[in-house]
Amino acid sequence: MLCALALATSSCHKSTQKYDEGSVTLYADEGFMSFMEQERDVFEYQYPKAIVNTHYMSEVDVMNGLLEDSCTLAVTSRPLTEKQIEYLKTKHKKFVRQEPIAVDAVAVIVNKDNPLGLLTVNEIKDLFSGEITSWRQLAVNDTTPIKIVFDQKGSSNVSYIEDNLLAKGAKFRDNVYAQHGNQDVIKLVEQDKSAIGFVSVSWLGEELERIQSDLTKDHLDSQKVQDLENSNNDSFVEFTDRVKVLKVRPDDQLNGYAPYQAYIYDGKYPLVRKIYLVSTASNNSVGHSFYSFVTGTIGQKILLMTGILPYHIPQRVVEMGN
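Predicted structure:
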C-alpha cells in the first residue's frame, strides 16, 4: 500500500513539460530587437504550439529580470558572472546555460551631408571626454557643436561605451543625449547635421525592413524556411542610405573600416562585442528548444541576414561598393 502511494506521488510530480508546446518569457536589450523578432517568428512557425513572449528594455533591466527570475531567456552583451550564476542556483534553483550567438558591432553614424568619412578610436574617445566638441576639430568646415546621441540609458551600447570609450569613472557630458531606441537615433541623425550617433549595426541593413517582413509568421511558408536552411554561408549586407556609416580606424593601423561582416569577422573593425543568449530553462521545455534553435543552423543564418556576424558559422563575406 505504501509503495503504491509512493509510486502515485512520484508520478504526480513527474514533469509534463514539452519541448514544442507551451510558452517562455525572453528579455532582450532593445538593440537586439531587429533580429530576435525574426528568430521568434521562424521558431513559432516551426513549432505552432510554442510561444516566445519577447520583451525589450535596457540591458540593466534585462539582467535584473533574469536574476529576479522574471524571465527564463535573456539576450545581453555580457555573460553572467560566476557570482550571478551561483545566485540563480541558490536563490531560484536554476541551472544556467549561456553561449555567444553573434558578434555585434557598435556603428558610428552621421548625417548624409556630413563630409566626415572616418574617425580614429582615439578621436571617438576624445568626443566623449570633451576634448573634441566642434566639427571643425575633425577637419570639417563647420563650427557647429557636436551632438552625441545613443539609444537609451542602461543599454548594451552604453555599456560598451562606458567600458571601452570612456575614462574609468568618467560621466557623460552635457552634449550626450539619450533617445528611446536605435531607430530613434537613426531618425535624429538623418534629420540633424550636427549629430553623431552610436547604434547596433544590426539596425542599419539596407533591406532590414524587407527581411523583417519576410520572416514574420504572416509571411512565412515551408519553402522560405527550407531556403533559409539550405542557403550557403556567403553573404553581404549593405547599409541603409538614410545616414552615413563611418569607417573607424584602430590607432595602431593605417586604414579605417566600416562595420561590414567581413571586417567584424577578421577583427579589422574595432568596435565589436559578443552577444550572449542566457537560459535558465529546464530540459524538454520550450525555452530550451528556443535556445537550441537560435544556436543552431537556421537561427544562425537568420542573424547573418540582418548584418551581424553569427558566432557559429564561419563566413567569407565580401564588402560591396565603396
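Summary: The first strand starts at residue 22 and ends at 29.
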